């Protein structure tokens, strides 16, 4: 394997580890670890609500997480296009939650991302989040097909 291939493999592993850290922080409710996956000037489009900057991103996440007794987020697959110190990609996720009223929910979702490598570390620079499915675990809810 040449140096360029080694760097590509290392970057792909680092991007997967970034998503693993993100999901682990969600599952544990660890705000400090979660926000450390974002670039300082990043932006987040959460179901049409767009915020920019790590303080606003963290605030939206904390507001959203406050409505749940628990959340378990599991990434299922991801793809990347890496160009130097920037990359684009997407992830599919399975999510299970129970709100403060005890109502459970199942989500299938997709993140479409932009990444930036700063000081040798990959971070999210922009994330768009959409539901593919949102409803009961028996999948009787509505499904939103994704565009290609």
TrEMBL record:
InterPro entries: NTF2-like_dom_sf, SnoaL-like
Domain SnoaL-like residues, every copy: 10-128
Pfam families: SnoaL_4
Protein name: SnoaL-like domain-containing protein
Lineage: Bacteria, Pseudomonadati, Pseudomonadota, Gammaproteobacteria, Cellvibrionales
């Amino acid at each position: 394997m040449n140096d360029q291939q080694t760097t590509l493999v290392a970057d792909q592993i680092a991007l997967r580890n970034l998503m693993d850290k993100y999901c682990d922080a969600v599952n544990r409710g660890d705000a400090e670890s979660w926000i450390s996956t974002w670039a300082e000037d990043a932006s987040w489009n959460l179901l049409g609500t767009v915020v920019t900057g790590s303080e606003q991103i963290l605030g939206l996440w904390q507001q959203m997480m406050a409505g749940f007794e628990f959340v378990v987020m599991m990434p299922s697959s991801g793809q990347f296009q890496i160009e130097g110190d920037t990359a684009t990609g997407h992830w599919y996720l399975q999510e299970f939650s129970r709100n403060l009223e005890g109502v459970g929910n199942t989500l299938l979702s997709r993140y479409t991302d932009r990444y930036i490598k700063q000081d040798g570390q990959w971070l999210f620079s922009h994330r768009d989040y959409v539901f593919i499915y949102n409803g009961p675990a028996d999948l009787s809810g509505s499904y939103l097909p994704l565009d290609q």
